[in-house]
Write a structure and sequence with these properties.
Number of helices: 16
CATH superfamily of the domain at 10-54 and 64-76 and 229-308 and 454-498: FAD/NAD(P)-binding domain
Structural class: alpha/beta
Helix content: 25-40%
Distance between the termini: 18 Å
Largest sheet: 8 strands, mixed
Bound molecules: flavin-adenine dinucleotide
CATH class of the domain at 10-54 and 64-76 and 229-308 and 454-498: Alpha Beta
Strand content: 15-25%
CATH architecture of the domain at 10-54 and 64-76 and 229-308 and 454-498: 3-Layer(bba) Sandwich
Number of strands: 20
CATH topology of the domain at 10-54 and 64-76 and 229-308 and 454-498: FAD/NAD(P)-binding domain
């Protein structure tokens, strides 16, 4: 029998992604007995790692933003992040590369970025400064209630924000693209700042204007790398879980959630029909797959969740090469010649883009431990549609796209890339769905779309079961490492508020 049961209050958590881990730490720090059940052989979920022939590939996140959120999580347990993991700020944040040969770097030093932009495009320095001030304002307006106070719906947002803030100061009426175009005249700069939507795997043409808060997240609080590889964050968190006495069960898939017929859940059913009783259940499995597979929702019951459409998926190409591509920075973006068309194909038409904007991570510049000497470690990620029954794609289609991506990279300066590949691995949307049980292979949970959901995701507290909560990228405040950690911390706070749990 699980330690989530017995004397005192037990919390059982389905899945050890960052949302589940954060919820476990926040609950255990409050003194609850916590057991985590993870179907994979290690914790971290999409924060995952693969070693092959001397290369270490981070399979999921490569950029850490808002490190203060992780500091707050460790502080709940009376610990310091830095005692578990070293994080490094990057001075050169994004290298942006265009088909016409233009290369534009974004530096952590705002003054330097401003000066460089102004030298290249006279007047762009002022545009950048005004845009960043607007971006900061959007962050500040959204940050307190949406990011920290568990606001879960437009109604709650209307109760916590003044009408002046909500409809005038917050950029809620326009799209992200409309506001980027209002601020920048030059098309390369429009492409770059529109692509900050990458952090939530959506389309800048469909997202509400306040999502332009993302550049301030990056410039205001830095873009960070976890020394030794991003997966070291999961290792540090695992150590903390153990120190807090959380029971971490690996290779344990949850098959259903027990119910008592009176709006309460009673625990978990694992493979082999093993039953675990619990007072509270938290699901880090995404909301829609969990409702379908663990709670047996009917199609009619699932209808209210349709607005929480999955974000984009991706093909994730990991290449080890026998040479170093010196022209690359740690984070690089190779732009589509028509990014609006790329957004339209992926997010409106759900088609594979022939000329996508490509994100390429090359961590060896910061951390030589990630590849053998004289070699490069490249993670290449174009965003593509999530899995759709009405527009199915085969492994062959994804392989073909990977080849088109390599063609584009060779054309844009990575000479003879194909010839220099010594290790190659490709993850498709079907792999991502299988590995993490994500909704249709989504990478960032729910799409951020002004018309479909106004950037809201599903609520953290089940509307049907009094003691069931959800955390992770499919609930508010959203996807990305810091956001899912916030969801876990918020869920623990809600549980403490909702129940006088015995400890
Ligand atoms: C290629 C890629 C690049 C990314 N880049 C970035 C980036 O640079 N920066 C950033 O901040 N974010 C990035 N992200 C997004 C980020 O990784 C996610 O938002 C975040 O890690 C998701 O955390 P989560 O809590 O939602 O859970 P997930 O990571 O989805 O984990 C859920 C866990 O639950 C487990 N599970 C599911 N169902 C069951 C079940 N029934 N029983 C037991 N276990 C179950 C799964 O195995 C998994 O371990 C990227 C993601 C990917 C895939």
């Amino acid at each position: 029998m699980s330690s989530a049961t017995g004397t005192g209050t037990g919390v059982a958590i389905i899945g050890a992604g960052l949302g589940g881990i954060a919820a476990a730490i926040a609950c255990a720090s409050r003194g609850y007995r916590v057991a985590l059940y993870e179907k994979n052989d290690k914790i971290g979920g999409k924060l995952n790692v693969m070693r092959k022939d001397g290369f270490t590939f981070d399979l999921g996140p490569s950029i850490l933003t808002l490190p203060q959120v992780f500091r707050e999580l460790f502080a709940l347990a009376g610990k310091k992040l830095e005692s578990y993991v070293n994080i490094l700020p990057l001075d050169l944040q994004w290298r942006n590369i265009f088909e016409d040969g233009t290369i534009i770097d974004l530096h952590a030093d705002i003054g330097k970025t401003r000066k460089d932009l102004d030298t290249r495009y006279p007047g762009a320095g002022d545009e950048f400064e005004r845009f960043l001030a607007y971006s900061k304002k959007q962050y500040e307006l959204v940050h307190k209630h949406y990011l920290y106070d568990s606001v879960d719906s437009i109604t709650e947002m209307m109760l916590t924000h003044s009408p002046l803030d909500l409809w005038l100061r917050m950029d809620s009426m326009k799209t992200m693209t409309a506001s980027v175009e209002k601020h920048f005249k030059e098309s390369h700069l429009q492409d770059i700042f529109n692509f900050f939507i990458k952090y939530v795997g959506s389309s800048a043409s469909n997202a509400p204007g306040f999502m332009n808060l993302m550049p301030w997240v990056q410039f205001g609080y830095g873009l960070w790398y976890v020394e030794g590889g991003m997966y070291n964050m999961a290792r540090g968190l695992h150590r903390l879980l153990v120190e807090l006495g959380v029971e971490v069960n690996l290779n344990r898939e949850v098959l259903s959630v027990g119910r008592n017929g009176h709006n309460r859940v009673t625990g978990l059913v694992l493979a082999g029909n093993e039953k675990v009783e619990a007072d509270v259940v938290i699901s880090n499995m995404e909301v829609i797959p969990a409702c379908k597979k663990l709670l047996g929702y009917t199609n009619a019951q699932l209808k209210s969740l349709h607005k929480f459409e999955p974000s984009c998926s991706g093909i994730v190409l990991h290449l080890g090469t026998d040479k170093v591509y010196e022209q690359l920075a740690h984070h690089n973006f190779f732009y589509s010649t028509n990014q609006k068309h790329h957004f339209d194909l992926v997010f409106n038409k759900y088609e594979l883009p022939a000329d996508p904007t490509i994100y390429l991570v090359a961590p060896v510049r910061t951390d030589k431990s990630q590849a053998p000497e004289g070699c490069d470690n490249l993670k290449i990620l174009p965003h593509i549609p999530h899995i759709r029954e009405d527009k199915p794609h085969t492994r062959g289609d994804y392989e073909q796209l990977a080849e088109q991506v390599i063609d584009k990279l060779e054309r844009m300066g990575l000479n003879d890339l194909r010839k220099h590949i010594v290790v190659r691995d490709l993850l498709t949307p079907h792999d991502i769905e299988r590995m993490y049980h994500s909704n249709k292979g989504s990478i960032y949970g729910v799409v951020t779309d002004k018309r479909k959901n106004f950037a809201f995701r599903a609520p953290k507290k089940s509307r049907q079961f009094k003691n069931l909560y959800f955390v992770g990228g499919s609930v508010n405040p959203g996807a990305g490492m810091p956001m899912v950690v916030l969801s876990g911390m918020q869920a623990a706070k809600m549980i403490a508020h909702d129940f006088a749990l015995k400890t």
